[in-house]
Please model this.
Amino acid sequence: MAKLAAVAVVGVVATHPPELPAGPYPVLLHESEDLAREWTVAVLTPRFGAERRRAGGPAPAGDAR
Model:
């Protein structure tokens, strides 16, 4: 999906960029940043669009952070 997207950005809490498949750009966050406690998944196609978001609080169960 990231190869076909105009832009794909992945924000991660880390000190070094993770290995990602070709396409997305990693953005490194510090764990103290507000954005580090948010996550959003957005899917857009010519016929469908959906979004899921969570802001603040701990990461969802099973999150690999």
